[in-house]
Amino acid sequence: MCVLSQNPKIQELDEFIEKINAKESDLIEVLHHAQNSFGYISEELVGHISQKIGVPKSKIFGVVSFYSYFTTEPRGKNVINVCMGTACFVRGADKILREFESQLRMKSGETSIDGIFTIDSLRCVGACGLAPVVMVNDKVYGRVEAKDVNKIISECEV
């Protein structure tokens, strides 16, 4: 834990845990906070959370692996998610994903070497009326076409 304890974000996480008096029933809330702060849930972070709130590491790993929101790998500053739910897929989401892959020269599930982009897909974001949908971090783009990909990339922080 020596590397983790040197991270200033860990103190902020500990303060959050103390503020809500976190216990096992608060695990998902704590994991969301950790994911937002650190960008991913490392094995070391799971151990820290386990000690802090008294939940076995195996249970924490189970929750992290079950929910697609959580990741155990570092993600890019700009996480691009293309919805692949039925409504989005039938309206060309696969072509949009391929266009992102082509323009960023990487495959879905990868993070760029410089840590600026991650491309991924989701099953459904619940915005079927806007299909096809792309999310970049917390920003939602609706009715996206392949020709919009360059503009979406240009709006990302570098």
Name some characteristics of this structure:
8 helices; 46% helix; 4-stranded mixed sheet; 158 residues
List low-confidence stretches. Answer: none
Strand order of the largest sheet: 2-1-3-4
Q: What's the gyration radius in Å?
A: 17 Å
- State the separation between the terminal residues, measured CA to CA: 31 Å
List strands and helices in order, with pairings.
Layout: H1 2-5, H2 8-19, H3 27-38, H4 43-53, H5 57-66, E1 78-83, H6 86-90, H7 93-104, E2 117-122, E3 134-136, E4 139-141, H8 149-154
Parallel strand pairs: 1-2
Antiparallel strand pairs: 1-3, 3-4
Description of the molecule:
By secondary structure, the chain is of the alpha+beta class. The protein has helices at 2-5, 8-19, 27-38, 43-53, 57-66, 86-90, 93-104, 149-154, and strands spanning 78-83, 117-122, 134-136, 139-141. It starts with a helix and ends with a helix. InterPro entries: NADP_DH_HndA-like, NuoE-like, NuoE_dom, NuoE_N, Thioredoxin-like_sf. One of its GO terms (molecular function) is metal ion binding. Its cofactor is [2Fe-2S] cluster.
Q: TL;DR of this structure?
A:
The protein has 158 residues and is of the alpha+beta class. It has eight helices and four strands; from the N terminus they run H-H-H-H-H-E-H-H-E-E-E-H. A four-stranded mixed sheet has the order 2-1-3-4, covered by helices on one side.
